[in-house]
Specification:
The chain is mainly alpha-helical. It is 71% helix and 1% strand. The chain is built from 13 helices and two strands, in the order H-E-E-H-H-H-H-H-H-H-H-H-H-H-H. It has helices at residues 2-28, 49-64, 73-92, 97-113, 133-154, 160-178, 182-202, 211-232, 246-253, 255-270, 283-289, 294-314, 320-352, and strands at residues 32-33, 45-46. Strands 1-2 form a two-stranded antiparallel sheet. The longest helix is centred in the C-terminal third of the chain and has 33 residues, at 320-352. The N and C termini lie far apart (57 Å).
Length: 353
């Protein structure tokens, strides 16, 4: 437990001290995120905050993790570096989505084959239990890539990705501590410390954004934590902290990024566009259109995500499929209500113009 606290403090301190220098260099070299039609900011802002998050998280993990009990750590750190290089390249000199996807696929493959970050069962969802090896491999890579890009897509307003990432890391980190998976808890709390430090500079008015460097790393870590959370339920000897519906519980913990990604991809496909075509249909955009500030929208969405976690915890006895349906229907209902509110606000604004 003491090492966990030290990991959090170390990553927080290093990121907190590094970001002002990163801001200075970004401004000096004109490495800025410019305002635009899809952007929610109106002034040029540095977008290299992910470098500070990466540095603080990596340093803390290497310093405090007991390597003798975490033989797969070297492979996880390799995937970190790959994702960091992709994100940094894209933040400084934008790269094509296909090249980013190839890099993400490489990182996911390392995690699945070398670090054994792999889903082996669906726990009875759709009547499916243990998965054949090849299906397990393909599903695991797919899940990792989906979660990585889900966090990349929600990084659109100040404080949202950092705040939501902190919530998820703390919730899962506490669970890993309870089941004596200290090495995984170390990763979760190291990232949480860096994210809290980053939020000091990202709360409106934001002095820096995390950029792809930060959001891709955040998604990668959350994919690792999520898959490990699900898989540990197969081997838990002490069932005191086991959940009845682990996969659905994991989806509830990640409900905002996962549901928002599913939602915008569906809307784009229905409209005859590529699912990767950028637009302003994200939930956080609707919150801004409804009249909330960045800070208000971020806090509201983080609280809603936490409420979903509580709901899933209370209803875990329903079983995986039933709980998943309840979670998705509730998310769909809330997003539809938000859509109506944002559309009404737009019409009011246009009529008063």
């Amino acid at each position: 437990m003491f090492d966990i606290v030290l990991a959090f403090i170390t990553s927080f301190t290093l990121t907190y001290l590094a970001i002002p220098s990163i801001i200075h260099i970004a401004v000096k070299k004109n490495l800025m995120d410019e305002p635009g039609e899809r952007r929610s900011h109106v002034v040029s802002t540095p977008s290299l905050g992910g470098i500070g998050i990466f540095a603080g998280t990596l340093f803390s993990i290497i310093l405090w993790t007991p390597f003798e009990h975490f033989g797969d750590l070297q492979y996880i750190l390799c995937s970190f570096i790959i994702i960091f290089l992709i994100g940094a390249k894209d933040d400084i000199d934008p790269m094509s989505p296909s090249k980013k996807m190839l890099g993400e696929l490489f990182a996911a493959t390392i995690l699945v084959f070398k670090a054994n970050v792999r889903l082996t069962s669906l726990y009875g969802i759709f009547g499916i239990g243990e998965l054949p090896y090849i299906v397990s491999i393909l599903l695991s890579i797919f899940v990792i890539i989906v979660i990585i890009n889900a966090f990349n897509l929600i990084d659109g307003i100040n404080g949202l990705s950092g705040g939501l990432g902190t919530l998820i890391c703390v919730v899962l980190g506490i669970w890993f501590l309870k089941v004596d998976s200290v090495e995984i808890a170390m990763v979760a709390f190291a990232l949480a410390g860096s994210l809290v430090a980053f939020l000091r500079y990202n709360i409106t008015p934001a002095k820096i954004f995390m950029g792809d460097t930060g959001s891709l790393l955040l998604g990668l870590v959350c994919s690792i934590l999520t898959i490990k959370f699900i898989e540990l339920h197969n081997v838990l000897e002490d069932r005191t902290f086991a959940f009845d519906s682990a996969p659905s519980m994991a989806i509830a913990i990640l409900i905002l990024p996962l549901f928002d990604t599913l939602r915008v991809f569906t809307i784009r496909i229905i409209n005859g566009k590529s699912p990767f075509h950028p637009d302003r249909n994200h939930i956080h955009h609707m919150m801004i259109d409804a009249g909330l500030t960045h800070t208000q929208a971020s806090i509201f969405l983080i609280v809603v995500n936490f409420i979903f976690i509580l709901i899933a915890f209370m209803l875990q006895g329903l079983g995986n499929l039933s709980l998943l349906i309840v979670i998705l229907l509730l998310a769909l209902l809330l997003s539809y209500i938000l859509h109506l509110i944002s559309q009404r606000k737009k019409k009011t604004t246009q009529s008063n113009a």
